């Protein structure tokens, strides 16, 4: 799944490739690299964010990099 997010007002045009995390057997590391989801939640890293995107069926988008 490739997630594409465009935020006009925030000037973001972010493309996040979540393919490497689509396998449910893939475990996330504890690396700190926050991603702010459109659901208002801060995910600890790309892996955690992508797992949430997959679980939501693609309903969550990347609002911006960093903490919400």
Lay out the secondary structure.
Elements: E1 2-7, E2 12-17, E3 35-37, E4 42-43, H1 46-55, E5 62-65
Antiparallel strand pairs: 1-2, 3-4, 3-5
Describe this structure in words.
The protein is of the alpha+beta class. It has a domain at 31-65: Wheat Germ Agglutinin (Isolectin 2), domain 1, CATH 3.30.60. The protein contains 1 helix and 5 strands; from the N terminus they run ββββαβ. The protein has one helix at residues 46-55, and strands at 2-7, 12-17, 35-37, 42-43, 62-65. It has a 3-stranded antiparallel β-sheet. A hairpin with a 4-residue loop joins strand 3 (35-37) and strand 4. The longest helix has 10 residues, at 46-55. The radius of gyration is 11 Å and the shape is globular. The model is unreliable at 1-11 (pLDDT under 50). Keywords: Disulfide bond, Protease inhibitor, Secreted, Serine protease inhibitor.
Quick synopsis:
By secondary structure, the protein is of the alpha+beta class.
